[in-house]
Amino acid sequence: MTVSYEDAVVDKPTVEEPGERGSRRDRLTALAQQHGALVALVVIAAIASLSFDSFATGGNIENMAVSSAFLAVVALGMTFVIITGGIDLSVGSVFVLGGVLAAWGSRYGTVVALLLPLAVCGLIGLINGLLIARSRLAPFIVTLAAMLAARGIMLSITDEGAQTYLVDKKSFFADLGQGKLLGIGVPVWITAVLFITGAVVLRRSRFGQHVYAVGGNEDAAALMGAPVARTKTLVYTLSGLLAGFAGALNAAWLASGVTILGFGMELDAIAAVVIGGTLLSGGLGFVSGSLVGVLLLKVIQNVINQIGSLDSAYQQVVSGAFLVVVVIAQTWLGRRRQVL
Amino acid sequence: MTDLALGKSLPADRAQLMRWLQDYGVYAGVTALLLFNVVFTENFVSGENFRTQAVQVAPVLIVALGMALAIGSEGVDLSVGSVMALATSLVSLYLGYGPWLALIAAIIGGMVCGLLSGSLIAYIGVQPIVATLALMVGCRGLANVFLPQLETVRDDTMATLGTGDILGIPYLALIAAALAALVAFTVKRTTFGRQLLAIGDSRPAAQLAGLPVRRVLIMVYVCSGALAAIAGFLATARLQASDPTSLGNLMELSAITAVVVGGTPLSGGRVRIGGTVAGAILIQLLTATLIKHDLPSSATQIAQAVVIVLAVYAARERGKQ
């Protein structure tokens, strides 16, 4: 049900092939799709740093970088899911659950604080993947149910949200969130490492090629001998693991397992991935775009905060409108490329 | 399942069971929950309790009606909760001109949202999940822009509508029932209903048959938006307050659950309004049962998640046949 009529009729190229057909227009279209977000990011950041004195300061940039890190890790997992043509709506709740589990586990040491959320959130992702890949249920409904279930589990271990577990600020686990390496926050480093690994896996590994193949055309991938069900299961497990890990990092940064932040994060993650040039119909996408998408969302959020007179509610209006514009542009560009 | 001989005849039986579950499971579930509550729950069989349940189920049911249309057309509308919030903020803004004008303003707001998501889906070819997701974020923000915080709503007409009753039946339940009948009639007896089901069944076939696919799809989302706005207005009347931040949160989930549990397949082409009504009642009863037996709301959410997956699983077996 996620495939529109146009997609069903015209097959998409499995991997992007910028300008292979030689036409300059074709190349420009592909370029706009791949790097449009980067251009927008640079332009908006340039305008913002000229307009607001406090925008391009070290403190503000660092603040933006660290707060982007958590969403970026979630968006990384979402990128894999969306390239297979699926969607994961459970990441927001899984993120919160991961944070609460990490904060609760931190009293038993860093290992527990990291392994517990990874185990539980990975398991949720695995169940999602099995229901989607083996039982062939629609991804959005399965992950919607998982979103409810993860929220329910989170509420039941926090006394219906009344209990907030704290992280000892002197522990090694807290350093993972709050510490600095060469003047840059540890979460930023971790995110960078994860993204480089993600990019290499997606581009260079057999699993990565399977992810593209499954998203491009599932039947063709199966006929080619790609392990469709295993790839899909792995992708949702990965998404659960990364969302849980991001939640744990966030708990370390805030030094507590906050029970109210993070819901609705799936929207931001999906928006970031789509803005970054990954096609929602699957088969086409790249992780660096998602990183740019996350940064773009955070810069817009920061600019709206800088314009003090604007209510923070405008941020949602702008995000929604922005998502619409990007999706329209993407659909238009995508159709154009197919015609050419 | 204990011996192999039984196992051989199982597939056919199982498919039949799943089919039966999809068609009538929801009614069986409602009956079972009612019986359970009559026997085990204190003060369940009272007019007061039935009124409370009916009033609480009404907004979910009205939203679920629009959702059933969207799902029947092989789409989904995730923006319904935010449209309710937008409606409540518009009601609060226009209440000065009287409650009916406020209702009209809310409905127009909801229809504009539906027009927007419908156009994105029908003309641009955006997937329904994404188009309505964008609207979901945008409308919630817009509701907060119009009305930054909770505001009490003082209006006699609305208070009567929200809390009054005729012959012991709350107005809210009557309105919900009337709307359900209207939507059921639309689906079964009108051209629009037939076209909607044909598009849900196979959009390429509907297009080739010369049906006005785009117009019908836009109408579906306009209807869904209008119904969500009516639900937002009624919820405001019942609570006697406008809360743009939290009204309608997770409503899309409850509505989708009601529709899916009611036997409407996610693959489109079939809309079951009776099942949707029973689905909404089932969720309400499930929540009420768990609360009355001192189980926390977290248990309700986990139970709802399990019910959704079971319902979709039962529907899948049928699709395979």
TrEMBL record, chain A:
It holds the Pfam family BPD_transp_2. One of its GO terms (molecular function) is transmembrane transporter activity. Keywords: Cell membrane, Membrane, Transmembrane, Transmembrane helix. It is found in: Cell membrane. Coiled coil: none annotated. It is a multi-pass membrane protein. One of its GO terms (cellular component) is plasma membrane. Its main location: membrane. It comes from the Bacteria. The chain crosses the membrane at residues 31-52, 64-82, 111-133, 140-158, 181-202, 234-263, 269-297, 317-334. This is ABC transporter permease.
Automatic annotation (TrEMBL), chain B:
Its main location: membrane. One of its GO terms (molecular function) is transmembrane transporter activity. Keywords: Cell membrane, Membrane, Transmembrane, Transmembrane helix. One of its GO terms (cellular component) is plasma membrane. The keyword Transit peptide does not apply. The keyword Transmembrane applies. It is found in: Cell membrane. It comes from the Bacteria. It is a multi-pass membrane protein. The chain crosses the membrane at residues 24-41, 53-71, 78-97, 167-187, 216-235, 297-315. This is ABC transporter permease. It comes from Streptomyces coryli.
